[in-house]
Amino acid sequence: MFEIRKSWYDMLKDDFDSIEYNNFSRWLEEEYHKYTIYPEPKNVFAALNLVPYDKVRVVIIGQDPYHGQGQAHGLSFSVQTGVNIPPSLQNIFKELHNDLGCYIPNNGNLTPWAKQGVLLLNAVLTVRAGEPNSHKGMYWENLTGHIIRLLNDRKEPVVFILWGANARAFLPYITNKRHLVLKSAHPSPMSANQGGFFGNHHFSQANAFLIKNGYPPIDWQIPNV
Known about the structure:
The protein is an alpha/beta fold.
């Protein structure tokens, strides 16, 4: 039903061959027939298709896709070019400006991050239009949890950025001390304005860790279009 990079498919083959996934896949196909579901099928695994397993340097875990028309395209917190920047992403850009001096871009397409090895992975990969969390608990967390465990097994260090309680639910899967885990409140206005997100300096901390381990830093600046 969905396109996925072969290297990721091979690593997740047991999941895709499981009875649980096949039952879920049939249910999800019905969802696509009966409702408007985001993102469109070709983009469900966009995060994995853009970043091979051995190229992942940073993981940013989101909740589920944006549920508004034209927003979601398979990358957590990212929206397609030409779409208004959602409040959570606006706050991410504000923290980037305060942390690293990046200017606030005129678009919210985070594909340039993915092309540098930032895995923008939502915990849940699909959603009904206008119904946030509508696919939560149906199966996706089994698969995305396995992805995090596979990355935890990596010999090369990875930065895991966990914003909010839903992202922190993956914390038990990250046990390898060679990795860096950064935690804070979620960037949504309700959470960020209560404290704990602004001033977390996660972007500069991630780059300092990468440089310390012999990797180039991420260029976090999203160019204007």
